[in-house]
Amino acid sequence: MKLGKLLLGSVLATTLAVVPSAAFAAANIFIVNDDGPNEGFNDPTPVAPVGGNPGTTLGQQRLNAFQFAADVWGAALDSAVPIYILSSFDPLPCTATGATLGAAGALEVWGDTPGVEVPGTWYHVALANKLAGFDLSPDPFGEDIIAFFNTDLDNPVCLGATGWYYGLDNNHGTNIDLVTVLLHEFGHGLGFANFANEAAGTLLAGVPDIYTYYSLDTQTGKHWSDMTVAERQASALNTNRVVWDGLHTTAAVPSTLQLGTPQVNLIVPFSLDPIRVGAAAFGPALAFPGLVGGVVQALDPADASGPTTFDACSPLTNAAAVAGKIALLDRGTCGFTVKVKNAQNAGAIGVLVADNVASTPPPGLGGADPTITIPSVRISLADGNRIKTALAGGPVVVTLGIDKTQRAGADRLGRALIYATNPVISGSSISHFDTIAFPNLLMEPAINADLTHGLDLTLTQMTDIGWFSDGDGVPDGRDFCIGSDPSATVVIDGCNSGVANSLVSGGCKISDLIESCADGASNHGQFVSCVSAVTNGLKKAGVISGAQKGAIQSCAAQASIP
User: pTM of this prediction?
Assistant: First the structure.
């Protein structure tokens, strides 16, 4: 069936005002003000300009920050069709301990429209417009993305002293940088999100989307677009085994993510599967090649919660056994620093804190104590039970540290990890990069304070899904030559060979292969030799004839390259 349009949501507009971009961008993104008088973007509260934001009212500073983030994305993307973001600032849930910052998403999805690279697939409307080359919903208020953010972060009751920073210079200190959050949320609306129900395993109207097309479960070897409902349900829980499979993001991983994945490896008994860990905010950082030691389950006295415990909430009673070893502790009723300090006082050289609920991936250990001098990590309930079972059968020896053969946030084949969690976290699972990535990435589920206003692997993900499509029909996440020479024939330095500039493989045309020879040659002889090798291969594959091979080689010989 032909898919057409599916409306995801709508907003009843009150006061609508389109704010044009201040500067030319490869894509023009406009903020549509959906706030009423004296609220949100129209709040007249006087404020002083801050961090390059010249607004003198609270509402104007909010609007400036929105347009600044829109212009960052606009400068990075490629579309002849304007993008409209229906935007508002409203009171949202907010307390001293937690808050909803805001959200954004596509208002429509389209499929089987002109220019799409994968048929039978939903596309976010802004991307579908770009690929079609015209606005698929050209009505006066045909917004593409909806974005709403929390005014209450400006209230001291919300998150204590933490609030929005409206500056444009990233000098947010302890406040939350609005521009960074906007870049993240706009990313969802532009294409960094699927339309699947992760918990149920179902697809929107039973149809895959362009995000699921590149979401790969490495255990099954299947993409989400090709899975059954049950397979998607299982994959959503498959921590460490769901990756983004677009080639441009994979190519950018080595220049983006650092070598060094924190983990625990079982040496005795030997196990091929490393254990995912959550690092501690206190104590020394994990190091390479790591700490090697035997594991001993810590024992402390009975307390009000029950008989003899293993949570180290009080001084250990088996200090002699723990001394010089890595202590295995259960998560319990006291703070993590208390547990680790008790293990340290007993002579432990490191600590593994096993969760007491079934959840993956394990988060880090929070807290602060400058007197803690041993490394500690958190592991899942399942991995804790796995170690306990092994201990019942004999000694257990592990390494606790950094694996420098693997990049933090990628699998062993260098593909960026997607955030698969057990249980599913609505709004976070799958439609984000994994939290283990380092440096932190824009599209992780939490906004990290060290993020800049860059787009990191998020931009290459946009490349994979088609934002720079050259219209050759090859999905860009599989296209090695985006932006191929559109010439009908192979032309080398002005010499027209007359040979059809055919699509060869992987989205590459013959001219792309010739251009690669030019880029890699340090002298004319190397260039001619490379072209000869390429054309000989094309003739052997039956792509060109002998006469056509000669015509291309003749043009190469005459060219002034390099």
Answer: 0.89
